[in-house]
Structures are given as structure tokens and as C-alpha cells.
Amino acid sequence: MIYLEFLEGQGLGNQLWNYVALRSITDKLGLNFKIINPYKFKGKEFLDIKYNSKKNKNNFNFKKNIFHESLFYDKDLKTYSSYFDKEVLKINPNTEIRGLFQSEKYLFDYDINNYIKIKNNFKKNNDLKNKCLLNIRGGEYKRFKNLILPKKYWLNAIENIKKISKDINFLIVTDDYQYASKLLPNIEILKGDISQDFINIFSAEYVILSNSSFAYFPVSLGTKPKIIIAPAHWSRFANDLDRWISPSNYYKGWSYQDKSGGLLTKNQIEKSIKDTISLYSNF
After folding, report:
1. Which residues pair with 80 in a beta bridge?
2. What is the pLDDT of residue 61?
3. DSSP state at residue 138
4. Residue 157 in this model has a pLDDT that exceeds 70
5. Cα gap 120→70, rounded to integer Å
6. Around 241, how many Cα atoms within 13 Å sit in the side-chain half-sphere?
7. Distance (Å, rounded) from C-alpha 41 to C-alpha 47?
8. Which of 87, 229, 248, 279 could cross-link 103 (Cys pair, CB 3.0–4.6 Å)?
């Protein structure tokens, strides 16, 4: 049995990454799984997931092994970074996994649609055809000047989408209405709770994302958007050291935009990630 605990303070994106990693790791190793504290799952109102692979309930009052995913601290950029930790394939039964687990390598080519289902009463928003959603992250991000994205990122991304078609309309989904309305006052905000935000992103044909784990799942479940634009280098947008923070957060099929508004080539991205991993491997 492999265990995962849902914790206080985790965002939905973090919980879902932990969950799909747990499911794919246990499928890969042929082991059973169980979620500790399933009531803390933030998506339970609109998402169906499995909390265990057995009907029996286990007593947690025994000593478990703990597997900690490797993290790297980047002193130059003053942040933690992660990548696929291959040691996860060596874990033994009766182990609890702890970490971020945000790399697609943890999925081992398993389809997350087999692990997560949107509940039947939450229907796709058909009004978002030919619409582009900007998933603007404000809130706690505003406290970190190196994390929050500049206004120019959003304006450049809008221009990149307009190159596809001038008829595409833009809307905002955000966790911070006041911030988003000041940032881009001429773009309508779709207001709603976390379930409505999730379904709206899930329904959009085009999306421009912030460097947040939340949106990975609505854009990866079901029919994927035609275009996904995300910030180059992820949580340290277009940094001068050309480091990908984190290498985990590079996702195939997405377009990554730099500070000048250009979309990086595959070779540029792969070089940045390779150099970043090479640096951290010496830590």
C-alpha cells in the first residue's frame, strides 16, 4: 500500500498533481493506494477521484516509510525547484509519498482521464467557443515580485492569440477580481467559485496561463484547447540565467512565451531544461 495525505493549505492543483502521481506510480509498480484525510480534497464538489484501491479501511497508527521527492534550492533565484525523481520507482510497500510531483514523467504515459472525472452535473460551457481565457493569478502571488507575471506578459500573449484570428474574444478567470480588473480593465472577468473557474478553463478553445499548477488539469482533461500559452521558465518568468524553474513544469504541447512576447522553440526550451537539470545534478 502506498499512501498520500491531503494537507491543510494545499491548493487544488497541488492536490491533483499528488493524486495523479500516486495513481500512476502505484499502477506502474502494481501496488495499492490510499488517501489520508480525503475530506480535505478541495475538488470534491465537482471532481470524482478514488480515495483507495481497497474496500477495507486501514489503521494508520503504525509506522510507515516516508518517501520525500528531491527538491533543489537555487541560491541565485532564491527558490526551490523540482524534477522527476527516479528513486520513486524503488519505493517499498507501506510508504507515504511527500512532494510536489508536478512532472508529466510521473504519469508514465498513463491517461489522467482514467484517474479524474468531472461530475455529471457540471457541464461544459458552450458559450466559450472561439473565446480565449486568461487565467490570471493574483492573491498571494502579489507578495512575490519574482513570481507574479508582469502586465506585458498578458498583453503580448493576447497579441499572439490575435495572430490566429482577430475574431477571438478574451475573458478573465482569476482568484483576485480586484487585481485583475486593475491589470486589464477592458477585459471582462468571469466570476465564480473554484468549480466554475475549473469548468470555464476546461471549456475554452484558447487559454493564456499563469505559472500556477491549478490550470494544468482543466486544460488536460477531455478535449484540449487549440492553443495554450504559458510563461517561459515558469515560476521565474524569463529570468536572465535561462533556468527553468521548475523543470517539472514543462508540459508537452504548450507554447511558452518569453519577455519580448516571442514563443520559444522546442530547441530553446530543451536546452534551458537540460542546462538547469545539469546544474542541479551537482547539488
Report:
1. 73
2. 52
3. -
4. yes
5. 38
6. 13
7. 10
8. 248
Q: Distance between CA atoms of 111 and 44, rounded to whole angstroms? A: 20
Residues 6+ apart with CB under 8 A from 121: none
Partner residues linked to 95 by β-bridges:
2, 65
Cβ within 8 Å of residue 177, ≥6 positions away: 189, 191
Peptide bond into 195 cis (omega under 30): no
Residue spans of alpha helices (H) in the chain: 12-29, 151-162, 177-183, 194-203, 216-220, 266-280
Grid cell of 166 as nine digits: 482577430
Q: Which residues pair with 135 in a beta bridge?
A: 173, 209
Cell of 49: 477521484
Kindly write down the DSSP assignment for every residue of 93-104, as one continuous string: SSEEEES----G
Strand order in the sheet with 206-209: 188-189, 169-174, 131-136, 206-209, 227-231, 255-257
d(CA 223, CA 202): 8
The answer to whether 65 touches 35, Cβ cutoff 8 Å, is no
**Helix (H), strand (E) counts: the chain:** 6, 14
What the block records as the C-alpha cell of 206 is 484558447
Amino acid of residue 203: S
Instruction: Read off the C-alpha cell for 150.
Output: 508582469
205 Cβ contact list (under 8 Å, min separation 6): 128, 129, 130, 131, 132, 225, 226
Determine the Cα–Cα distance for residues 248 and 173; give it in Å rounded to an integer: 24
Residue 34 φ/ψ, nearest 5 degrees: -155, 135
Q: How many CB atoms lie within 10 A of CB 120?
A: 7
Query: How many residues comprise the chain?
Result: 283
Determine the distance from the C-alpha atom of residue 178 to the mean position of all C-alpha atoms in its chain, rounded to a whole number: 23
Whole-angstrom distance, CA of residue 208 vs CA of residue 210? 7
Per-residue model confidence (pLDDT) at position 164: 92
